[in-house]
Amino acid sequence: MSTAHISADAGDFAPDVLMPGDPYRARNMAAQLLDDARVVSDVRGIQAYTGTHAGRPLSVMASGMGSPSATIYATELVREFGVRRIVRVGTAGGITSRVGLRDVVVATAAHTDSAMTASRIPGVHFSHTPSFAMAARAVAADTAAARDGRVHAGAVFTSDHFYLDRPDLNTALAAHGTLAIEMESAALYAVAAAEDAEALTVVTISDHLLTREELTSDDRAQSFQDALEVALAALAD
What we know:
- With 237 residues, this protein is an alpha/beta fold.
- Helices cover 35% and strands 30% of the residues.
- It has a 5-stranded mixed barrel with strand order 5-8-7-6-9, surrounded by 5 helices.
- A hairpin with a 2-residue loop joins strand 2 and strand 3.
- It is globular and about 50 Å long.
- The model has no long low-confidence stretch (mean pLDDT 93).
């Protein structure tokens, strides 16, 4: 059953997977959430964990950074290991005054300029959308962040280029309702569509391109609780 990137056996993964980008963040999530957590895969420094949360099976595995890495792991999880739902829990850069540092964004769409989408269905501008049911539960979740008005639903932009400075593009995207920029959601949504699975992205605003504010690495590690509560609500059907 093992693949080139996942060293697990049949039944090792739960149907639901939380997927941060950072392997250390995945380890911390597993330690916080999972009862009887066990390592089910350890290839290329990407460990995967399975246990139970609130009496239900749950797995946690990192995606690495960027669309190619997320596509590989999401495809293999769904196609080879029976995973049905994946929630990306990561970070994003805010590009509009509608969101602030540490706010949570539920990505109801993911725009992208990635060539990966252009090659998936040539000649078509593919629309990247999440599971409606999961997004609806996430947006409706009664969490402390939601009560404070810090949970937002809207589109994100998935970019392949982390350091490229494109202020005009950011302005145009924000003017069309885009809330943040990140690097994996469009790929994850495309995999879910192609493999008949469900996916959702819930991200924390870790830096802001308008205000130039940003969280430190330690702050990022400590600022996931709000997004994590929203992500778990999305899986609580």
